[in-house]
Design a protein that fits this description.
The complex is a heterodimer of chains A (119) and B (130). With 119 residues, chain A is an all-alpha fold. Helices cover 78% and strands 0% of the residues of chain A. Chain A has 4 helices and no strands. Chain B has 130 residues and is mostly helical. Chain B has a two-stranded antiparallel sheet with strand order 1-2. Classes of the chains: A mainly alpha (119), B mainly alpha (130).
Chain lengths: 119, 130
């Protein structure tokens, strides 16, 4: 029997599900709502030197990579399987596009985390 | 030749016929918002790597009305995902036991919700004051 890739994708889906259930709402609330309108979060909190310092620290890099990569793997897994619910019977091409884009997002994030340098 | 006229139940809009399936589709649909949000963060990292001016331009874009509406919708749908993720956790998590007895479902679910609230407070405090 051909081995299935599903356990790998399900693990990434599950890890992304846990991480996003824990921190996605508060991250969306901070970066997308209260910081831009300047309520409950001072504008300086996300100033360039501060965020750069975070992205240059090894632990900050780890958190950024985990958030972006696992959110993507979680989302593409649900979108790929959700296509069936919408009457689209997706084949291998859609599968490669889904998980491939999450992998691409992960690799670009890793590259950018190296490009911003180390503090 | 006689045509076979088999009845095929129409499936278009199936999920709108039942509130349970509507909630299911909202939960699954939250992943579209989550994916876009991850790409927005990735764009922010890209702009950060380009320097202070690019970073400030990214921040200004996030203050636009379109962005604010998107993030409110994302907050609602992804918040619903967080709620349901812990709600089904007793069925999806490995067999958790306290002593010899399985943990009650309510303990696992409430524990997950408490973890989300705790993590949210922690992230807020760290972003604001650290």
């Amino acid at each position: 029997m051909k081995r299935s890739h599903e356990p790998i994708f399900w693990s990434l889906f599950g890890a992304g599900g846990v991480l996003s259930a824990l921190v996605a709402p508060v991250l969306i609330f901070i970066t997308g709502i209260i910081a831009p309108i300047g309520v409950w979060m001072p504008h300086e909190a996300l100033d360039y030197p501060r965020v750069l310092g975070f992205a240059q620290h090894w632990f900050g890099k780890l958190l950024i990579l985990a958030v972006i990569s696992l959110f993507l793997f979680h989302a593409v897994h649900r979108i790929y399987h959700g296509l069936h619910d919408l009457g689209v019977h997706a084949g291998t091409g859609a599968m490669i596009a889904a998980y491939g884009s999450a992998l691409a997002g992960t690799l670009i994030t890793a590259y950018l985390l190296i490009a911003v340098g180390f503090g | 030749m006689a045509q076979v006229r088999a009845y095929v139940r129409p499936m278009a809009g199936w999920w709108r016929r039942n509130p349970y399936f509507v909630r299911y589709m909202i939960r699954e649909g939250s992943s579209v918002f989550l994916a876009i949000y991850a790409v927005i963060l990735l764009a922010g990292l890209f702009r950060l790597a380009q320097g202070p001016a690019a970073w400030d331009a990214w921040r200004a874009a996030l203050a636009s009305p379109v962005s604010l509406v998107f993030h409110w919708l994302a907050l609602l749908t992804v918040g619903y995902h967080a709620y349901t993720w812990w709600k089904v956790a007793p069925k999806t998590a490995p067999d958790l036991r306290w002593g010899n007895r399985p943990l009650p479902e309510l303990v696992i679910t409430a524990g997950g919700w408490a973890a989300t609230i705790g993590a949210s407070v922690l992230v807020y405090v760290l972003v604001r004051w650290l």
